[in-house]
Here is the input.
Amino acid sequence: MLIIMELYFSRGTITIKGDIRVPNSSWDERSRTFRAMGMHYKDIIDYLKASGMDFKDNVLDLIPCPELQSSVVLRDYQQQALDAWTASGRRGVIVLPTGSGKTIIGMKAISMLNAPSLVVAPTIDLMNQWRSRLEEEFKIEIGALGGGEQEVKAVTVSTYDSAYIHAERLGNKFALIIFDEVHHLPAEGYRHIAQMFASPFRMGLTATYEREDGLHTELTRLIGGKVFEKKVNELAGEHLSPYHIEKITVGLVREEQEQYNLNQGIFSDYLRKSNLTLKSPADFQKLVMRSGRDPNARAALLARNAARDIAFNSTSKIEKLAEILKNHRESRVFIFTEHNKLVHRISREFLIPAITYRTGGKERSEILERFRAGVYRAVVTSKVLDEGIDVPDADVGIIISGTGSERAFVQRLGRILRKRQGKKAVLYEIVSARTSEVNTAKRRTRTLR
Amino acid sequence: MLTGDLLVTRTYKGKIEPVYAALDAEIIGIASSVIDIFQSHVGKTYGALLDEIEELEEIDYRLIRGLASLLERRCMIEMDSTIDPVAARRAVFEECRGIVTGPEERLKVLERTADKLSITPEYLEKALWADREENLVIRQFRAISSEDLLRQYNLSLTQTLLFKATGMEIRISGNYQPVFRKIKQLGLMYSIEQGKIYLDGPISLFKLTERYGTAFAKLLPVIIRSDTWGIKASIIRKTLQGKRVLEFSLDHTKQIFNTDIAEETFDSAIEKEFSTLNFNGWKPRREPAVLKSGQYAFIPDFSLERNGIRIYVEIIGFWTPEYIRNKVQKINQLEEDIVLLVDKNLACSGMEFRADNILYYNKKIPYLELIKILRKYEEKQLQEEVAKTENIEIPSGESVVNLEEVAKRYNIGIEALKRVIDRYKGEYLLFGDQLVNRQTLGTIKNELSGVKRHSEALRIFERYGLKGHTLILQFLGFKVKWSGLDPENAEILASKS
Here is the structure.
């Protein structure tokens, strides 16, 4: 009897009925079929076609899709990026600075394929931003997964978390999947999204391709590697606002300095006694793991956090902030800090609207809306707004405290760099002198120097 | 379930296990002081509660925080303000365009805004931040005993460890249906080997993945409701030497959980009815086993057992012909015998699907038809045993032969044995389950003549080891005359015939 091969989508995997082994598949005794991860769908199809095999393909079950017409005209570098992506089989990552219009490239790709598409973004704000841009562009209702919503449409936006949870169910419903801020994708859990979705066409967007842990190399396998890149300095002036960075060092007040020295001392004593050096995030993780068993390690860790708290939240910084704010009475100011505690202190003392991860969605978009409209001229925020949210009218950024992460820095810079006529952006960094923060600050700006 | 940072584990020679809270005086004391703190903070702020809990963390911060996070779920926490803080903030920010640069300016803004809202500046200031976590107020707390809290904590620790599992093997007895229903609902895959059920998911074929860990954790509460159970999970652990796979195992003998075994639940009234019926010596049992049907597991609703034969019964509710056809296909792959009971009234569509061992019925269990099917099995077993009795020798010259012993010796049913004793009717007669020598019967008859009291007659029977005295008395031509309730007063009489 002649058995025709059949391919099915089965909860994030492709099952192959009919006794033929295809690339990237393994025999599964449980189902008595060959099985492959969803992401190999296109390779399998290509292989079978190239071999002239007869087969029945039941994998994709695409959501019915209306015409997706886009009237946007791309800038030259945006067009180049899209062309490069198309040329690599409609797969791969486009690397462009924040503020250079990555969303537009994504939308153009969707209309080019004119097929059901899923956009995955790291935060709810960003997801909502994509949604309103897509609604405006295509004049259709956009589905959303995340932030309490669960509606799937031909074009759907999702958070990484929701896409991870629903991958088994939705992995065969979209022809194109776009990962915004794609540097999140290689993380152990999120990686499953790319692996379980069968979508043959994949696009990654980011301003910062490299990850400190080196995992960005995984992107090649997951969605195709880097196909296009432009750096901030290649676009500044012409497409982005000219900017300068101003670093301000402040001393701790006396009691703060004493407390700082005491705590920092406990921490470095422990490191010395136990022969530890902290060179990378991995070293630090080791220390955290050790603190689970070793009370001294935990005490050291707590002391380090206390010292950092003092350095990051010093009263001198607050005084400096007041001074900067006085000097920029007509500017739109965005203030970044590492800790929610400091966000609240600034919000309370200066009556500046605050956005933290606890701020409700409605209040959050209201604050951003009013900032854009000029009703508010300052916003203070912790890590939540590092990525992607458009605040085109900010021209002053103030970093009160931050990690050594280069990515966060570039993104914060990006917040204030969107081009506007006659705009000249300035980014302040306030750093506590004679503390470990000096080095932290150095680390995050190394590529810009 | 707890957050990963609160999980405490112990690893030893490739094994891993949570450090469970012992239910001893010391730990119970700690648990009760955490409970006390919650109790005493009803009406106070969440921030004050956290501060006090933090002071206890010295003892063992992960235990304390773990207990606290379980207790938090028993609290009703609310905002303490009659003014919506979001609206209050909006009013203040509008008043100053979202920025002030000095304390005096700040105070003026607050005063102007408070004035507009007709409240005092102090009240406004309080309302502004009333929705911050530390300013929320605990309205209610549902108390729990220290022991129950600790058991719940132990279960949560186990579930938290299972989050990191790449695969799990389980062994259960009873409770099959709920467990498999949950497995299916959670989207897990299984394979069965010698009563062990291996669980993981589609992607597990390609890599060690923690993706299904949450599903294992959710399955655990169902597993532990089984009569006996055991689990064995592979846990990925990041160690200083890199990632390693460790083994975690646990079973019902370790009494660390709050199992509060749920009452037996029946899928339908019919199942309930079935479990109470008496089938001519066939004993019904619910969800007796997991059977292997090709690659699938099959858990019949009941088994009926008699004389070492076991027949399975599956009761089918709503159905379509395809459904039944599939089911039949599935049971055809079983080595065991099974009867399907299908309710006619619950047909979703189409014609009945006919096959052996399918009984369609109307509302009530088709008791008689089922007995008929069971008779067939009884008869079949009988035939097989009768065939075996060919070689059986019943010793001659005994006064009494107990068939039960003979049956046991030759490992056949007593019914089968009775079929062959015709061969010995020259020497023996059958009374109940005993063969009695004709000569012995003559002797007994002689002994009985002159005996009047029934009890005295019984002593004679006893001496010969005879059980069926009523039958034998009757055979020998005696009647029992009862007077009153006291058996001592009963007499035997030779009947006239």
Notes: The first helix of chain B runs from residue 25 to 40.
